[in-house]
Amino acid sequence: MAQGEKILVIGSRGQIGTELVEELRQMYGESNVFESDLKDPGPHDINYIQLNVLDKDALYGAVKKHGITQVYLLAALLSATAEKNPAFAWELNMNSLFYILDMAKEKHLKKVYWPSSIAAFGPTTPKKNTPQHTIMDPATVYGISKLAGERWCEYYFQKYQVDVRSLRYPGLIGYKSLPGGGTTDYAVDIFYKARQGVKFTSFLSADTTLPMMYMDDAIRATVEIMEAPSETIKIRSSYNVAGMSFSPAGIAAEIKLQIPDFQIEYMPDFRQEIANGWPHSIDDGMARADWGWKNHYNLNKLVNIMLANIRV
User: Fold this and answer.
1) What is the pLDDT of residues 49-87, one digit of tens each?
2) Would the CA dihedral through 11, 171, 271, 127 be positive or negative?
3) What is the DSSP code (8-state) at residue 130?
4) Of 28, 79, 82, 284, which has the fewest Cβ atoms less than 10 A away?
5) What is the DSSP string of 162-173?
6) Catalytic: which of 72, 99, 142, 297?
7) What does R_g of the chain's alpha carbons equal in angstroms?
8) Is 257 helix (H, G, I), strand (E, B) or coil?
9) Catalytic (active site) residue 142
């Protein structure tokens, strides 16, 4: 771990940012990790910068004022939310990335993390064990922005030697914060309904199998790729990473093993069409080979942890 680093997590109050900030502060110390979001600061916030990432001057000013050396850019409109406002989703998801890449190009930053997603794949992408390099034809504005972002990351690395690193996240599941408008959000909400003892209505069909990952694995993968020696990062677009794959019916069956009275019904909505274009499972062999990635959690462990920790 490099000394003297000052880290900024943008979009820190989201599902990933909440836990990533906590992990980075344990690693680097509270005084060296800054967080920013649109939300008002709380009374006990440390190194919090209220910031609109589309305010370029404010963003540049914060980086320079605090001597930031690394940025984790997590601010984005996710798949389902982005479909409701495609123009703004494109503006937010792309312009924020350009601002950060340009700062790194100008040597204000040493290292950049930007997440991609399985949404960058599309209807004609191979569904099973989706390979690292394959057909990518996303059909959502979120997926289009992620695919475009991957290509720009690769471009800035090749053209300007920007040290940018990225993961294609599957659906992410954790209990410390609520999700932010993605198509895989059902896999978090289902645990709250189970704990509340009420019937869960799935917006995806029973057999819609998607790649998922427990949040601890996602945070660890994010930190590991950023900590890895530069020469081991051979893909500068974005790495496939995988945890597990399951359907709403599959996770409901696991929950019923612990809560036998749990009930689920299926009422697919517009998010079903989004999910139909995504992979069923992911081949992350290149991440494993290049920088030693390995998931720790399967569906059984995930269900046990979620039900043990969710309070309603």
Assistant:
1) 999 999 999 999 999 999 999 999 999 998 889 999 999
2) positive
3) B
4) 28
5) --EE-EEE-EEE
6) 142
7) 19
8) helix
9) yes
